[in-house]
Amino acid sequence: MIAYLFQKLGYGVLVLLGVITLVFFLFNLAPGDPVRNLVGENASQETVANMRRKFDLDLPVPARFVLYVNDLSPLAIHSSDSTSRAFFDQQELSGFKILPVGKSWSVYLKSPYLKRSFLSDKSVAAIIGEVLPGTFVLAFVSIFLAMIVGLILGIFAALEKDTFWDRLILFTSALGMAGPSFFVAMLVAWLGAIVWREQIALPYSVLLYVILLFFLLRKSTLKFGTLLITRSWLLTLGLMVGVAGYFMLRGLPSSSFLRASLVLPGTGLSMTGSLYGVDVWRGEFLDLRNMILPVITLMIRPLSVIVQLTRSSLLDVLQQDFIRTARAKGLSEFDVIVRHGLRNALNPVITAVSGWFASLLAGAIFVEFVFGWKGLGQQMFTAIENQDLPVVMGGVIVISMAFVVINLLVDILYGWIDPRVRIS
After folding, report:
1. Helix (H, G, I), strand (E, B), or coil: what is residue 223?
2. Sign of dihedral through CA atoms 269, 274, 275, 276?
3. What dihedral do alpha carbons 312, 300, 139, 379 form, nearest 10°?
């Protein structure tokens, strides 16, 4: 097992090195001058030259890459000469000398150094440290709720196979998968923070119509004399009639009994906000209410995927011989479904959850922009706009490490859940 872990870690280091190499050369060979963007067009040539020297932009791209990897590596070669580009600056680098090499060069063991932002001259590690908790909390809560709700709905859909409830869950999950993130984010923000912020009135006639349509859809076909109406046609006609009826109700006088409504309290949520809010009297404080709308937005698509994967995988497992054997031994249906069926059906679900979690950690840029959430995705987008290469590279490294670590944890989790893939 230890050898297997070291092998996976070795693969992870190679993946990180490949990603760093690709992104570094991609941004350094792209047209544009970040120094000119920083100092402006009217700056003197001396100022530009000093800034390029400060950020090592006066060196050839291969030399810059070697210096960057040397700063990033925990085991690196540095010089004690303050004029050297590889000088071991105690204020920037945290580590100690382990082996002298030549007169002024030594091998150091240190923490990785991500350099400083071109734009703010602030440590990249500090910049990422400020925004990463917001993205991590948002991603973790979203994927956790999506997994819990998705497993429950997927199990229920599998047990109610080919019934109305099964088709309703599949139809709803298909809608969730089809919705683009930017559209869902704007829709959730509009409904939760504008339409329903104070209160919302639902006419009783609309509620009764929805309930009637719901019960009609439970039948596969409706027969009116010689006319047969399938469920899909009934749903289409029902939605058309419902939309037309809603606008007709809005045209009636407010005193009409058909306009009588059920008034629901508002959400009281703001459209924008981050994990921490700022109050004039209290200062900075933890504001968990700001998470509600972004979490709902982020969990819709992974929830839909988990529901469908759980359903299909559980249906396949329930057809296996060992399930019939478990039932023949007299085990309760709960033990059969949960302990034997679900446990053997979780592998594809875990793969999907790990992939979605890593993707959310990469930064849901559209969601963070719509809700004004201070996170890694928004920070990286701003850095790309301003050609702030150190911040972009730091974000890419964090995201790549997240993928490597999560994949390693998933491989270990496979062996714990499913003995068939356990490594001796």
Report:
1. strand
2. negative
3. 130
Domain co-membership, 337 together with 378: yes
Do 350 and 388 have their domain in common? yes
How far is CA 27 from each of CA 13, 31, 114, 403, rounded to the nearest angstrom? 21, 8, 16, 22
Number of residues written out for the chain: 424
Last residue of a domain, one of 69, 89, 110: 110
Indicate the SS3 state at residue 224: strand
CA atoms within 13 A on the CB side of 26: 10
Are 292 and 375 within one domain?
A: yes
Give the pTM: 0.79
What distance in Å separates the CA atoms of residue 421 and residue 417, rounded to the nearest whole number?
9
The verdict on 254 and 363 lying in the same domain is no
132/2 same-domain check = yes
The answer to whether 199 and 263 have CB atoms below 8 angstroms apart is yes
Instruction: Examine the domain organization and report whether 325 and 365 are in the same domain.
Output: yes
| Separation CA 101–CA 108 (nearest Å) | 10
Report which DSSP code applies to 87.
B
Q: How far apart are CA 31 and CA 40, in angstroms?
A: 17
How many domains are contained in the chain? 3
180 and 305 share one domain: yes
CA dist 360 and 345 (Å) reads 24
Residuewise pLDDT in 10s, the chain (424 residues): 677 677 777 888 888 888 889 888 888 887 777 777 777 777 778 888 888 888 888 888 888 899 888 888 888 888 888 788 888 888 888 888 888 887 888 888 988 888 888 888 888 989 998 888 888 888 889 889 999 999 999 888 888 888 878 888 888 888 888 877 778 888 888 888 888 888 777 777 777 777 777 776 666 666 666 666 766 667 777 778 777 777 777 676 766 666 677 777 777 888 888 887 777 777 777 888 888 889 998 888 889 889 989 898 888 888 888 888 888 888 888 888 887 788 778 878 887 887 777 777 765 777 888 888 888 888 888 888 888 888 988 888 888 888 888 877 877 776 666 666 555 4
Q: Which one of 234, 265, 296 terminates a domain?
A: 265
Q: Which domain holds residue 45?
A: 29-110
**Dist. CA 124–CA 115, nearest whole Å:** 6
- Own/partner contacts of 404-409, CB < 8 Å, gap of 24 or more, are 404/12, 404/15, 404/16, 405/12, 406/354, 406/357, 406/358, 407/8, 407/12, 407/354, 408/5, 408/8, 408/9, 408/12, 409/354
